[in-house]
Amino acid sequence: MTKVTALAFMLFYGLIAQAQYKAIVGATLINSNGDKPLENSTVLINNNKIEKIGKTGKVNLPEGTEIINAEGKYLIPGLIDSHVHFFQSGGLYTRPDAVDLREVFSYEQELAMIKERLPRTFASYLSAGVTAVADVGGPMLNFDIRAQANSTQKAPRVFVAGPLISTVANPKLDVGDPPIVKVSSNEEVDQLVQQLANQKADFVKIWFIVSPQLNFEDNLKLIQRTIDQSHKHGIRVAVHATQLATAKESVRAGADILVHSVDDKEVDDEFIQLLKQKGTIYTSSISVLDGYNRTFAQQFDFTPADFEIADPYFMGSLFDLRKIDKEKLPDRVKSIMKDPNPAITSASERVNIAKKNLKKLQEAGITIATGTDAGNIGTLHASSMHQELSIMQQAGLSANEILINSTLNGAKLIGKQKELGSISSGKLADLVILNKNPLEDVANYGSISTVIKNGKAFDPKELLSPTPEDLAQRQLVAYNAHDLEGFLSVYSKEVKLYNFPNELLLEGIDHMRERYATRFESSNLYAEIVNRSVVGDYIIDQEKVIGIGNSEVEATVIFHVSDGLIDKVWFIIK
């Protein structure tokens, strides 16, 4: 076999590995371990671990080292979302216990779609700079999801709990593999904890919702039993407790993690002392607090990250309330849709209490980890991390505190602080290169140049690689959200719009901006896809549109995609 033939053979079969060494050269290193930012740094990676850190020119690079030029950029540890749920999509149909729309879209269909799109969900986390997540509660399928993620390059590190243990049942979520399991006796607690231990659960999760069938003391006894049995198996316990009273009792009982902010009243000194004495980690999870009400009110506050990163199909489902027969909606939802102000105000009050508590606990020196509760209605996977960072900034946390909460403290929550969470020799190479300084504004966490997970570098734009259909869906979501920048972001600067077949309506992104800025002023504007066909780079949507004039418009819209952007659109108006 000739050398050329042998090389071709090795390339074909993937026998030539990546360079053993990589070096990130020239970045300002912003660490989470208390060190001052290091300008013009070099970080040497040996396979999947950080080997050396120092000033550029002071770190000897082995021959053949692959150089990642990060001059003028900023290097941080990979972000960690300490509270997600992969059995939920963030879309409208994901919690039939909150809004029961199973007659419109079955829960089985929702779960099948979530499972099918998991690879895309995994990739979205890396695209958001999130290199590890804690899924703190889901069906037994969670353990398969962990295995799937850990065998996939384009996925964050996934740490999981199994079913949430509760004294309250939630039958609407049970289609054979329930994410919430009711326990009524010590024997049932012991059996379930043993089952989770057999699966090597990273956490046991308790859903501390007081059962009306039990008095508070009996509820608490079962919570205590769950914590004791979990600790007996060496498994840490995370508790869902959003009220100050239940949060206190959870900490007293030995909870290792509180995965929600307290949002019913301001925390007091007693609670702070309990957290300190027990060493309990407190998770932010504030972005989730108004997702449901904003969805029911159809008043969204999407961010650029949502349009760029979130799954456009689940995101698009949030608008389906506008087309569903109102008689099929629960009274609560109908009431909010009719008059959203009370619900939005109530949600805002909870958010404000949670922000005050976060600031107070941060100042008291409590260990806080950044979490989103992603997967709940209106809290989208991956992109919600950037909303949570913004909320922390609004709450008054310093830039350095936000970084530590989102990296090193997340590593502490998942029990991997010796391996993750800071840029240190011997730790795993999970890193993010940013174009802008995150210490100046948390919005700069969105300026991701490169994500490195387990020593492998990814371009965030290539991780998601949107198809033509994805782009058409993204522009539809932004259209229905009346978000002009999100809408225009998927169009070419030289875009051309036609009345079919060739009557030019406008040319160029600036003219398109003028046209749609006016259109988006209509609060009733909404487009429903009746049918969609995909033919190569062409997407053909049959739509019903309201909010243009006084009557419903039926239209066929044809999109053409070139070089990852929509460059031509044709309209056929009936």
Mean pLDDT: 94
The major sheet is characterized as: 8 strands, mixed
**Unreliably modeled segments:** 1-17
Strand tally is: 24
Structural class: alpha/beta
Shape: globular
Distance between the termini: 66 Å
Radius of gyration: 25 Å
Estimate the strand proportion: 15-25%
This entry's quaternary arrangement is single chain
Map the helices and strands:
Elements: H1 3-12, E1 21-29, E2 38-46, E3 49-55, E4 66-69, E5 74-77, E6 79-84, H2 107-116, H3 118-127, E7 130-135, H4 141-150, E8 157-160, E9 164-166, E10 180-182, H5 186-198, E11 203-207, H6 216-232, E12 236-240, H7 244-253, E13 257-258, H8 269-278, E14 281-283, H9 291-297, H10 304-309, H11 312-317, H12 331-338, H13 341-363, E15 368-369, H14 384-394, H15 399-405, H16 408-413, E16 431-434, E17 448-453, E18 456-458, H17 460-464, H18 468-481, H19 484-488, E19 491-499, E20 503-507, H20 509-519, E21 526-535, E22 538-546, E23 553-562, E24 565-573
Parallel strand pairs: 1-4, 1-5, 6-7, 7-8, 9-10, 9-11, 11-12, 12-13, 13-14, 14-15, 19-24
Antiparallel strand pairs: 1-2, 2-3, 5-16, 16-17, 17-18, 19-20, 21-22, 22-23, 23-24
Helix pairs in contact: 5-6, 7-8
